Amino acid sequence: MAGYDKRFSGRKFDEMREIEAKVGVIKRADGSALFRMGDTIAIAAVYGPRELHPRFLQNPETGILRCNYDMTSFSVPERKRPGPNRRGVEISLVTEKALLPVLELKQFPNAVVDVFVEIVQANAGTRCAGISAAALALAHAGIPMKDLVSAVSVGKVSGKVLIDLDKEEEDVDDATDIPIAMTGRKQEITLLQLDGNLAKKDLMEAIKLAKQGCEKINKIQQKALKDAYKSVKNE
Ligand code: CDP
């Protein structure tokens, strides 16, 4: 493909897809959230802190975080085989690593906080939407946190550095996709994955775009949390 002058979707290179965030979507969970970026929809549910079983897995020094990422069979055009797979194991692990730095689990020795991330519709960027949803659900569950975490993927498609790749862009032959998660206030990066080659200059530009994007996502997450408490006040 020659130069990429305009995105397939018509978005600007620094423009994310439409974002929607809501907490309290699963009543039986201790905390829950929905986070949508365009056609990618993630739902996160938090259970705990609760005593960890089997007991030999317990840590008397701190509570532990356990994330489980899954995509429903009907979330993608070509039916996904239900159940765990390698990709899910990897994404569960990076989700955990992206969230752990903001969590204060020391006050919950021998306990576990479980986070289930379910992708009900996928159009690229699912791990990022999942992380933003999980951070919201943890806050909604009242788990002590130093900060929120927001995530977005940035990358390079046909010579252009851009934010929030959709599936059409990810599928371009030379596309480089870099999922990035960061904390809200200090914008400390808690996840950065990069497969393939990218010049340092482009990487720096991409990180700058991710910072701008995460700042916007953080505001939307904060609003979702505030809205939930507004409705409680009015009940
Ligand atoms: O979703 P994310 O970009 O975090 O991870 P990926 O492994 O790079 O997957 C990119 C996209 O491929 C997903 O968001 C889905 O849209 C699609 N996909 C799919 O169609 N079928 C699968 N079994 C896995 C992914």
Q: Could you give a short description of this structure?
A:
With 235 residues, this protein is of the alpha+beta class.
Number of beta-strand segments: 9
Which stretches are low in confidence, meaning pLDDT under 50 for 5 or more residues running?
Answer: none
The main pleated sheet reads as:
5 strands, mixed
CATH class category label: Alpha Beta
- Assign an overall shape: globular
Series of secondary-structure elements, N-terminal to C-terminal: EEEEHEHEEHEEH
What distance lies between the first and last C-alpha atoms, to the nearest angstrom? 56 Å
Number of domains: 1
Q: Please, what is the CATH homologous superfamily?
A: GHMP Kinase, N-terminal domain
Give descriptors for this structure:
binds cytidine-5'-diphosphate, Ribosomal Protein S5, domain 2, alpha+beta, 29% helix
Word description of this protein:
By secondary structure, this protein is α+β, with helices and mostly antiparallel strands. The chain is built from four helices and nine strands, in the order ββββαβαββαββα. The protein has helices at 86-99, 126-140, 167-170, 200-234; strands at 19-23, 31-37, 40-51, 64-71, 111-121, 149-157, 160-163, 176-183, 189-192. The strands form two sheets. It has a five-stranded mixed β-sheet. The chain has a four-stranded antiparallel β-sheet with strand order 7-6-8-9, with helices on both faces. Cytidine-5'-diphosphate is lined by residues 76, 80, 87, 122-127, 167, 170, 179.
